Amino acid sequence: MTNVRALGLLVLLPAALGDRVTIDRADHLRAPDVGVVANDNRSPAGTLANGVLRLHLRITHGVWHPDGDGAPGADILAFAEEGHPASVPGPLVRVPVGTEIRTSVHNALTDSSVVIYGLSGARGAGDTVRVQPGETRELTTRVTAPGTFMYRGLRWVRDGRTDSRLGSDGMLAGALVVDPANVSGHLASDRVLVILQWRDSVRLHPNAPDEGEELLTINGRSWPATERLQYQLGDTIRWRVVNASFDVHPMHLHGAFFTVLDHGSMSTDTAVAVADRRQEVTQRMMPLSTMMLQWVPAHAGNWLFHCHLNFHLVMHGGFAARPVASAMPGMSGPRMAGLIMGVTVHGPVTADARPRRWLRLVAEQYDSVPGDFVPPFSFEANDARRMTIPAAPIIVTQGEPIAITVVNHLREATSVHWHGLEIQSYYDGVPGFDGNGTRIAPLIAPRDSFVARMTPPRAGTFIFHSHFDDIRQQGGGMYGAFIVLPRGTQWDAAHERVIMLGEARDTGALKINGVDHPTIAMVRGQTYRMRFVNITLARPAISLTLTRDSTVQRWRPIARDGADLAPSQRREVAARLPITIGETDDIEFTPARAGTYALDVRTGKGQLLRSATVAVADPR
Fold it and tell me: What is the mean pLDDT of each run of 10 residues along the chain (620 residues)?
């Protein structure tokens, strides 16, 4: 990574930022005084003249409707530009590089002071500003480098700490975009997507224990009320994604690969050198981070961009999620809600190629199999009726047209998403949404089937998994690896190792290839392709380490998310691998000595979750 660019201010976050703080909720919001609108981040705020942006912000109470103006509302804190309604996210600050930003911030609250981050500081010596109830403060900064940044407010609670997770200030943030000098058209050619998270400290539906307490939004709306972005086939699409929340989000794009051009934080932006760029379908976004990504649609149709932390696909803070359009009558189960953006790509639909190979995949359900997967589900080939978690890999050949008949033997509806594959939208696996025009993908009802047709354009490691009632079905074992071999090659079972990280729904137990402690056999001196897959429910920040006698080994990354790495990235490195949910990584490893190795799975804080044994034998 190269070219670290400073915004011109250093945001000093307090030590308590990110901590959970217990506070007296008696100061929860009084009667709100304004309505809060969703901000699509298309119109910049303030007045720009002679190299100076003058911006007047107000912090206020308001009622916000994340599921649409006619849906239930929540009392929150929000930023408003003077003369305009309060909005979620806050007003977009967008200026050319070199601009001086002069912001007056008025705190219209009567019960809380607010700490402001990201709008003050100069020459790399930034600060934070606390604005007392009823007070107006003047903040100034000069932005000295282009990039994607953010500003944020947090309520000041007792003991001089800010509250980073709970209460009404979860939506108190906005994007700050600095465009390069003398570059026009940015407002039309890119979109700014701000991720925010709100936790209901009062519970809108205390008698509904299955309702989530968190609400996750993009540009102020929660799916299915999020904006549908519209493009043409062949467009080059650029998004500036701002994670202004305090959670990790593995952001996944259906149907096409993207490239991260820049990534950053509240105060810095780093351009990714061309040689270091990668094609990928899932990118982990840490709290208070940003990225600019670029992609070109592979096919016309409807596509999703969403967080792959499964709980963020169903959480709506107690709000009533609307039914998915075209859902089949009589089908039950949680509907998608939360951190999801829909995209429609207009253009001609490629005709399905005549399959050269037919496969059959059966979804089975079991009642009395012991273990952590409750109830246990299984994807099985050819009606084997032999529970396998994960499913046996589906192995196909690059460029070969295939058809997969998915047969549903469950007592409930299901679907299958072909994660990472560039296929027609109708077959992508999101029921009620995927497809083109009136041809919308159905749920697969019990005792019914669906034929998915595809011609995989690239070789690599991909995933297939349920995309309906995701937590229950994926957490019950409905996932497997989808492997596309290069043209003219055969599956080399002796030197291929698929290692899938999954998670049981009810216990939260992390599994390696469906069990607690698997053994992976190898032979000294032989080179293996280790295909790692993270399809856990809620483990977005885990990592893998391969050691022998506590010494970290060496291995060579060769692909990520099914896309081959550039030659400059295929170099031998220490055997450590951060891997987020929805990500796959292909690694080459040649054990130099016989013996026992440990493949450890750890949390982001280093806690050991699971360990597999790699047993290396001498050659015969």
Answer: 34 35 34 77 96 97 86 87 96 95 95 90 58 95 92 77 61 94 66 90 44 78 93 96 94 98 90 94 96 97 96 65 38 68 95 94 86 85 80 97 96 96 97 93 96 97 95 93 97 98 92 96 98 96 96 98 94 97 98 98 94 97
Q: CB of 219 within 8 A of CB of 89?
A: yes
The answer on 125 and 39 residing in a single domain is: yes
Domain count, the chain: 4
Q: Nearest Cα to 141, choosing from 95, 106, 182?
A: 95
Residue of 389, 393, 370, 369 lying closest to 378 (CA atoms):
389
CB atoms within 10 A of CB 207: 6
Asked, for residue 77, whether it belongs to a domain, the answer is yes
Q: Of 407, 425, 402, give the one whose Cα is nearest residue 484.
A: 402
Q: What is the 3-state secondary structure of 500-530?
A: EEEECCCCCCEEECCECCCEEEEECCCCEEE
Exposure string (b/e) for 455-488, b if CB count within 10 Å is 16 or more? Answer: bbebbbbbbbbbbbbbbbbbbbbbbbbbbbbeee
- Let me know if 322 is exposed, middle or buried by CB neighbors in 10 A (0-12, 13-18, 19+): middle
Same structural domain for residues 411 and 434? yes
**Would residue 203 count as lying in a domain?**
no
Boundary of a domain, candidates 183, 206, 236:
183
Q: Are the C-beta atoms of 479 and 500 separated by less than 8 Å?
A: yes
- Residue bearing tokens 């022998």: 548
Helix, strand, coil % over all residues of the chain, rounded to 5: 5, 45, 50
In this prediction, residue 139 carries a pLDDT of: 94
Q: Whole domain around residue 609: which residue ranges?
A: 498-617
pTM for this predicted structure? 0.91
Same domain? For 297 and 314 the reply is yes
Q: Are residues 467 and 531 in the same domain?
A: no
Residue 163 lies in a domain: yes
In whole angstroms, give the CA distance from residue 343 to residue 461: 25
Among 297, 415, 405, 295, which residue's Cα sits nearest to residue 355? Answer: 405
CB 148 within 8 A of CB 175: yes
| C-alpha closest to that of 87 among 110, 112, 64 | 64
Q: Which two tokens stand for residue 425?
A: 């939208």
Q: Kindly state whether residue 534 falls inside one of the protein's structural domains.
A: yes
CATH number for the domain spanning 262: value is 2.60.40.420
Tokens of 252: 């996944």
